[in-house]
Amino acid sequence: xxxxxxxxxxxxxxxxxxxxxxxxxxxxxxxxxxxxxxxxxxxxxxxxxxxxxxxxxxxxxxxxxxxxxxxxxxxxxxxxxxxxxxxxxxxxxxxxxxxxxxxxxxxxxxxxxxxxxxxxxxxxxxxxxxxxxxxxxxxxxxxxxxxxxxxxxxxxxxxxxxxxxxxxxxxxxxxxxxxxxxxxxxxxxxxxxxxxxxxxxxxxxxxxxxxxxxxxxxxxxxxxxxxxxxxxxxxxxxxxxxxxxxxxxx
Amino acid sequence: xxxxxxxxxxxxxxxxxxxxxxxxxxxxxxxxxxxxxxxxxxxxxxxxxxxxxxxxxxxxxxxxxxxxxxxxxxxxxxxxxxxxxxxxxxxxxxxxxxxxxxxxxxxxxxxxxxxxxxxxxxxxxxxxxxxxxxxxxxxxxxxxxxxxxxxxxxxxxxxxxxxxxxxxxxxxxxxxxxxxxxxxxxxxxxxxxxxxxxxxxxxxxxxxxxxxxxxxxxxxxxxxxxxxxxxxxxxxxxxxxxxxxxxxxxxxxxxxxxxxxxxxxxxxxxxxxxxxxxxxxxxxxxxxxxxxxx
Lengths: 250, 294
Prior knowledge:
heterodimer; A: alpha/beta; 6-stranded mixed beta sheet; 4-stranded antiparallel beta sheet; globular; B: mainly alpha; ABC transporter involved in vitamin B12 uptake, BtuC; two-stranded antiparallel sheet
């Protein structure tokens, strides 16, 4: 059914939530992302798969504007993004939850959540928004005034996601959300992603937990050594053990 | 040598606190700038010196110490804003030594500028008329102006604490000094925050220059020893720690004044000995976190 992408590429370029074309990125001299072209449609959940070092994290960082050396095109919500600083991209409705969570030490859970809305026009409603978020994240609700780094790894991950959701982004980039999180919380987290999807949030997911990721995704791209080597519907990839073994087995 | 009495010790302690108050303010500015921008501001002593000159100038022109108290930090902060925007900013992302060398050079420019404008001998100062005289502090007579120094510092530190702990900008500063990437990702234009913090840090340096002016000679070179002393305080307190800056500032002031009581010739040396001891025992400083530079 998704084959139509091939024929409507020209239109898709303007319609997509995220459109990445011929993206190249470098860390110092190493060419980490090579000629990447992919897209994410509004409301879709798309997973980037591949081994460690395949360039997944770099791709997300480049989309968010955290890498200086890059070429190509990144358009988000019909706006050209490449060359714009990260904070401008945030204000266009793009959110990013980095791999290491980046919970700010020395701040409480509440203050970390406040940061999520601190630059937005909606910051007058910060308290109401924290209440609302706390409904979705009951684990955070009881711990609002606690030092954020005293939370468990999984709770910190929840906090990082909640913080990114404070400003109600159109699209969220999630880097390895289940890493170092205990299984019970991973279940909770993926239920949450499904709910976010149902509420219309577009998600670009990087995840080692391939089966989990594919089970909530619409489509996936497989990266290997900085290039896209395969793309397909999540359901098809889920059934394709060979591909999974070839590119994603650790 | 006169007999050392408890009264004398107490008065000397208070003198040390008044001296330490100025150190604390200087170190707060340095620490704020370093914590947020990772810029070691070698022009901090020069901003202090310019604050002293402008303080005297505004006092002469307006005739009011209180006007000068507002105008001086505003003017010095404005100079700081211009320096960050046009000189320091192009050097971000190039390593810690670039802004260090730049501010080092900047301090020479500021010293020369003051020599050109006000002459090499400096300007005469006196205690503002409202704050002259001595007061009975219970265990002796103490200069009113030095008490004012301690009180003014307390007010400034309290105001700064409220700003950093209770306001939106304070939260951004606290978060940004720990992790500037995450605040950028959350929509904050970090370059504006850096500009603000540099302006604030230099404004406080200017204010401390104004406050210290009546207690020392105002000349273009007055910032040079002050810079070294501020670094001692910052290192003792821990780079980037505001609590550390206050505690270490007062501590250094007290150590200096107590040493001057018993062995005046070693007073200058004593604070460096203090720094050496702290570095040996606690290399990250009293309130610093290990590995801040890593």
